[in-house]
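Hi support team,

I'm opening this ticket because the web form for multi-chain structure prediction keeps timing out on my end. I have pasted the exact lines I submitted so you can reproduce it. The total is 1032 residues across three entries, so I didn't expect it to be a heavy job. Is there a limit I'm missing, or should I split the entries? Thanks in advance, R.K.
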Amino acid sequence: MGDTTNLNFAGSHILSIDQFQREDILKIFSTADMMEPYAARQSQTRVLEGAILGNMFFESSTRTRISFGAAFNLLGGEVRETSGFESSAIVKGESLKDTARVLSGYSDIICMRHPTEGSVAEFASASRVPVVNGGDGHNEHPTQALLDLYTIQRELKGSGGNLDSFRIAMIGDLKFGRTVHSLARLLCLFDPSRIVLVSPQELSMPGELVEALKAAGHEVVETDQLNEGISGVDIVYSTRIQEERFPSAEEADLYRGKFRLNQAIYTENCQPNTVIMHPLPRDSRAEANELDSDLDSNPNLAIFRQADNGVLVRMALFALIFDVVHLVDKHASELPWRSTRHNI
Amino acid sequence: MGDTTNLNFAGSHILSIDQFQREDILKIFSTADMMEPYAARQSQTRVLEGAILGNMFFESSTRTRISFGAAFNLLGGEVRETSGFESSAIVKGESLKDTARVLSGYSDIICMRHPTEGSVAEFASASRVPVVNGGDGHNEHPTQALLDLYTIQRELKGSGGNLDSFRIAMIGDLKFGRTVHSLARLLCLFDPSRIVLVSPQELSMPGELVEALKAAGHEVVETDQLNEGISGVDIVYSTRIQEERFPSAEEADLYRGKFRLNQAIYTENCQPNTVIMHPLPRDSRAEANELDSDLDSNPNLAIFRQADNGVLVRMALFALIFDVVHLVDKHASELPWRSTRHNI
Amino acid sequence: MGDTTNLNFAGSHILSIDQFQREDILKIFSTADMMEPYAARQSQTRVLEGAILGNMFFESSTRTRISFGAAFNLLGGEVRETSGFESSAIVKGESLKDTARVLSGYSDIICMRHPTEGSVAEFASASRVPVVNGGDGHNEHPTQALLDLYTIQRELKGSGGNLDSFRIAMIGDLKFGRTVHSLARLLCLFDPSRIVLVSPQELSMPGELVEALKAAGHEVVETDQLNEGISGVDIVYSTRIQEERFPSAEEADLYRGKFRLNQAIYTENCQPNTVIMHPLPRDSRAEANELDSDLDSNPNLAIFRQADNGVLVRMALFALIFDVVHLVDKHASELPWRSTRHNI
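Hello R.K., no limit was hit. The queue was backed up. Here is the completed structure from your submission:
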């Protein structure tokens, strides 16, 4: 923890959150802060003019794909992309390494999503340009983990908190949920004072991750009671529970709706400024174990700011990989038009 | 009619033609005229440099999607897009409002097509950026209606006519056809001297629309005879008749080919300068109730100019929504290359 | 041969390699050489700023589509595209000419791929902008043929060879393979000293093409022995053999793996600098009749340089069609960032 070994981002692949030290993450976040005027359309920068992003989504994910593309456009670059298995090349027996060597001839950086675990790393090993993992099956989705932690940092700022002193409850399917696993691993690099894990017993956080959190010095509490879990925390991180994850239909019935947070439960159990997060999409149907839409007017509902932050984090990663952080403002200019976009 | 209440376009959604007054429409058309040198590649403007269009086509429509995207590019902006239901977010129970709040964080304006009536308005209600309806099921497709009326205005100019003094025949399925309904509603804001509705009796224009046209002071004639209907008009607006719309196969047989316009019928019944329009695509198969391809060399066949005009109208809407109409020429510059594109 | 009739590229369609004379091809290749600093990101050019490519892929082909799009971006232009039959317009009976007249209103040039032979030429006949054939079924894929020949020229340069003095072996399915047919036809415009055709007898080169090669003055050798075929040549051009092409399963069994080149066979039979080419994708599965991955570290394996050259050739064609070859360098400027891309 607190290791000062700084990753040299320039030209690097971004494949896993495990490649980051604490200082790397703080560097990404301070760079993301720098991006805000551009993302908010107060001015524009053309620092990546002439650069091409190959946005290679071999598995569909509209929002992640558009978020990467928009982030690259906001730095002045162009985007070429694919949005699903349209090619028959793999059917024809082409190796992922051949695909990588060919496609990496067409762009200056590649963001890639693929349904198979490990596929993005294999692709990166043969790519001639940096590769950013946009999700490889159940394995990794590092930019989601980064934007989650970045959102926590930003939301805590309002109340004077920081990543080394806060309390968080993670709720839902903690056994299979990729986002909570990644967030837990990132939290090992910081010093939150209390981590509450709220889940059905059958879907509790894997033992090794709980041990890692404890080994990092955190107080970890496990519970299957929502009300108890969310009291006295600064951040509530809610996630989806897929019914098919339960060992039996009876178990699913037993827990249905038990982890659904709504305004009444929030008012009764949470502190006034408790921030609500969710990786999205959330299931808005009545029987879902997620966030009720009656929370939508709650100013502490941070789920859309969280999605917005994804653009800032992705811009930051691009600027770091292209090694142009110091040039972003130098290539800034006024926008000819004025944005009518409002934030939330 | 002739109401002077002017819509404030800046930052507005474009969801329905019903939001427009006569003056709004004339403003769109005069702005579209201004766009012509840029669409014709006589010079370029970069007035929307740094802006991103989210071209969200949740239902496929290649030409409408490309037309919106090209219009935005011609103003100097970038386009991020989706072209079909690739995402599983909706399957996972996400509300359209959540989708809107997330996607509207990635762009400065959204053009959206969706198979469900009312979906675009619902999306717009939660969007943080202006939304332009690119078609929501059987409900609305306002830019198609605008480009149709704009085409009529332009085509009439040659013969000294205008939107307050002309005669039009609308042909085909007037019961279910979205484009003829929209056009009829727009015509209520102007004063054409004669409107002829040519259709099988089972597919005639809904009574309320006929009444609205009459209430607006128009002379309305209904007939199921093509030859009679197209004589003495300035504009023939032909549309598709889908056979499955007929109440029975016998009815369909009865009318097959009866509303197909070809050069011989045109020569026999139309005035020399009668303009032929169609929303496209037209069915070019021999048995279709549409426009015969022997009309292709007729200089009054305006169907491709009509499609071209869509780019002008969409550029105009973008310029009005971004409130940059007065800046378009200011940000103009010479093109480094010369277009070999020829118009028709 | 050696005809000096020069195609006037400006505003022309590129539909078939048969439209080129020897001088045209040399012009394309010298233009492609000029593009190298831009493709290598040593600087950028904005010569096609304001131009829009309509990248109309009615049949999926990720790499060809991205290669065209990247080439256009590298010249400063924008890309609007479609990547598969998403539209129902054709289902509704629209003619390809109508589609062409509409779509050609949205862009300044169109690259098109379509599964039907002759479809791109038919489309081009009604297009108002130049059309480049990106593959029309089994018929033509002229930019692939050009990049193949361009690669031969570049690879030969190292050893002092040129297109009028070299020896080549073409291997695989020479009966149905579109790429080898196109390459053979292009070779008729030059004077290679020896052409070896290596294939199963059932999949040998069509007689008319063999005759054309001989009529052009080439020495042509036909064999079904790989080892013999690849000895003493400068270029080995390997292609896929699809098992379903054999007249019977027994034939397929007989030849399985017999045309697979690996490092051991290469070392034993080839000269030290024999260049290995393949149109890609290659089948990397063990039983395939193609290139073994143990050749990947062989510096003479040119298959990825070949794919890279596709960008140069496509940039060259765009510059020639837009008639801006003399302006490319004039509109060059420094890139704000430095590429970390490495070539192979």
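A quick check on our side: Chain C is about 35% helix and 15% strand. Let us know if the file doesn't open in your viewer.
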